[in-house]
Amino acid sequence: MITLDDVVAGRDRIQALVTRTPLVRSRTIGERLGTNAYLKLEMFQKTGSFKPRGAFNQVLGLTDGQRAAGVIGVSGGNFAQGLAFACRRLGVTCRLAMPEFTPSNYVEATKGYGAEVILTETLEDAFAMVGGDRAEGMTPVHPFDNPNMMAGNGSVGLEILEDVPQVTDVVVSIGGGGLMTGVATALKTTKPDIRMWGVETVGADAMHQAMEQGKVVTMEPTSIAKTLGAPYVSDDTLAAAIAYLESVTVVSDRDAYRELRFILERAKVLTEPAASCTLAAASQLAERFQPDDHVVLILCGGNSSIADIVAWEDRFS
C-alpha cells in the first residue's frame, strides 16, 4: 500500500495545480449528530470533484515518453473531467472511454476540457477498451487503482489535519476506493486514533461486498450515485479498507438524495449523491460520536445537474 511519504510527495507535486478547498464547520449538522461537525467542500475543486488531485499526480508520475504518447482512461464521470482538465493543463493528449449511461453533463464537460470521448455500451466495455486496440499506444491511467492516484487524493487528508488538527472522525464515500485509501493513509499514519468511516450506496457497494467475502468481487452498479459506480474495488484498496476503516455503511439512494436536499437547503452547497451519502451514514452512526468529538464529512463532489435533481425529486418525494 502507499505510505504517508507518498501522500506528502503527491501533495507537494500537485499543490500549485489544484485548489485547496474550504473546510467549514456546520452547527446545523453538528446538532443533528450531537457533536462538532465539519464539511470538506471538494465540490469547489476544479471540475467539481476531488479527482484532479489524483489525476495530476498520476500524469506527472509518468515518463516524458509516456506523456508524449498521450493517456487513455475510463470513467463514469468525475475522473473523466479531472483527467481531461489535468491533461489540458499539462499539454498531454487525452482519450476517455465512458459508458453510454454517463449523464450528458459529464460527457460534455469532459469534451469541453479537450479530451476525446468514446462511448461504450457498458462500463465493463469501457475498461476493456483501455487495454485494447483502441488505446493505440496511449498510456493507460486508472480512476482509482494506481498508487499515484491514491497518493494525490490523500492530499485531502493532509488538508483536513491542517484545518481541524483535533479531528477524531472522518466519513468518506467509496467508489473504487482511491480517495478512501489516500485519505486514510494520510490520517491514520499521522494520528492512529482517528476513526475512518466508509460509505457506499445500495447498488454501488463493491467495497462492502468485497469486505464481506474477503476478496474483490465484480458487480453491475445500479445506484443513482453514478460516481460511486465502480464495478469492483482493487486488492490494494480492499487491503486499505480492512486496515483502516471502522466499517462501511451502505445507505439507500433515497437517503442519499434526502441528505443532498438537506445540505443544499441548510449549508447552501450542491453536492451529488456520492457525497451526500456521507451525511446519511453519519446520521446512522450518530450514537458512536461523543459531544466533544470532531467529525469531518468529505463532500467529494457536486456534479449534479438540474435534470438529475428533477428526476430524483419525482422519484423520491
Q: Which CATH top level class of the largest domain fits?
A: Alpha Beta
Mean pLDDT: 95
Which structural class should the secondary elements be placed in?
alpha/beta
Q: State the share of residues found in helices, binned by percent.
A: 40-55%
pLDDT under 50 segments (min length 5)?
none
Main sheet, how many strands, which sense, barrel?
6 strands, mixed
Q: Please give the count of helices.
A: 15
Broad shape: globular
C-alpha Rg (nearest Å): 18 Å
Label the CATH architecture of the largest domain: 3-Layer(aba) Sandwich
Number of domains: 2
Strand content: 15-25%
Could you state the order of secondary-structure elements as H and E? HEHEHHEHEHEHEHHEHEHHEHHEH
User: CATH topology of the largest domain, which one?
Assistant: Rossmann fold
Number of beta strands: 10
Strand order, biggest sheet? 1-2-10-7-8-9
Terminal residue distance: 43 Å
What topology emerges from the helices and strands here?
Elements: H1 4-14, E1 23-25, H2 27-33, E2 36-41, H3 51-60, H4 64-69, E3 71-74, H5 78-90, E4 94-99, H6 104-112, E5 116-120, H7 123-130, E6 139-140, H8 147-153, H9 155-163, E7 169-173, H10 178-188, E8 195-201, H11 206-213, H12 235-244, E9 245-251, H13 253-267, H14 273-284, E10 294-299, H15 306-316
Parallel strand pairs: 2-10, 3-4, 3-6, 4-5, 7-8, 7-10, 8-9
Antiparallel strand pairs: 1-2
Helix pairs in contact: 1-3, 1-8, 3-5, 3-8, 5-6, 8-10, 9-10, 10-12, 13-14
